[in-house]
Design brief:
Blueprint (H helix, E strand, L loop, with lengths): L2 H29 L1 H5 L16 E6 L2 E8 L2 E4 L5 E2 L2 H13 L4 E4 L21 E6 L5 E13 L14 E9 L5 E5 L24 E7 L7 E4 L8 E2 L10 H4 L13 E3 L14 E7 L3 E7 L6 E10 L16 H23 L5 E5 H4 L20 H19 L3
Antiparallel strand pairs: 1-2, 1-6, 2-3, 3-4, 5-9, 6-7, 7-8, 8-9, 10-11, 10-14, 11-12, 13-17, 14-15, 15-16, 16-17
Amino acid sequence: MNRKQFAILVVLLIVLGGAGLLLLKKQSQESSAGEQGAGQKILGEKFPVNDVAQITVKSGTNTLTLVKKDDLWRVRERDDYPANFQQISEVLIKLADMKAAQVEQIGPSQLGRLELTPPGSGNNSGTLVDLKDKDGKPLKSLTLGKKHVQKSKSATPSPYGDEGFPDGRYVMVSGNSQDALLISDSLNNLEPKASEWLKKDFFHVERPKAIAVTFPAATNSWKIVRDTETGEWKFADAKPDEKLDTSKVSGVSNPFSSPSFNDIVSLSAKPEDNGLDKPTLVTIDTFDDFTYTVKVGKKTSDDYPIMMAVEAHFPAERIPSKDEKPEDKDKADKAWKERQKQLETKLKDAQAFAKWTYLVPSYSVDPILKERKDLLEEKKKDEAKPGDKADATTEKAATAAAESKPN
């Protein structure tokens, strides 16, 4: 063997040795990847959760877009209606703190098995969650895949059936297409259903003093009033033969005190599409000088479409009570001013709801839609007068005598 051949052999040994070391190192990393990834935060140790200003959730052909505009989270698919901030905050904090319980290295052919393929790519596609900042810059995205289920060991049948109950989910984070991370939360609420992300805290009517319901058919309409909060309700325009049944009025005397809604109607919808071109009007005046006007449209399924408007005419100054002492004036004035500020804030908050049409569950609306006849006290049948019975008996006897005479 000459010197040249020996040098070539030495170079080959060095190359093969280096390749062998690299292969061993890679195998070692792969074998311990699950242990190294487990316990690590899936979005990184310092994910800027406060920078998130847009959340997009895609599954199949459905998309949900939550956007922070003017310091308020909104639902783009619902004409920028305010979103549930608490719900969004809880999800973001959960994602930022979430850790991998297990790591499984997979190849492209195994993505379908764990439902980690891009949304819309088939039956086994995943749910994409995309997080961006206020400028639209991507912060992080992850694909939610197959849910991990825990078989029930109890003899009692599980509400989830024989498959067991979900106790985790496989996810894949952007920038790492080889590691499927198993987390200990199924993230059931991260779905692109716009109606479930709306702020459902609605307007609230308090301390009503007059309630009027005007139906398209005028004879069904009515109005009831009371002089004080503890006073008795009565018809504002009672006819001589009408009397309000106090046992029936309880169902209509506190309308929209704590309403909610299931969804909202697109701003592009026409009034005639929901029966709001010929609505039933509910007008409520309160002891706080508010006037609510609620338009109720045609009932569909279990929902009524409604629109709400509110105005108020607050007094310019406080009217002292008759027995008010001079030393109590300052304290009373201060309390009155604070109350007026609260009412002004309430008015402003309520007026913010006037832009949209809401689908309100029927159980919140049906009680107030009673017709006039349904509120009347039932009339008692006329009792026979003492002389009526005697007259009837005499008449009956005379008739019998006449029939017994021969022709």
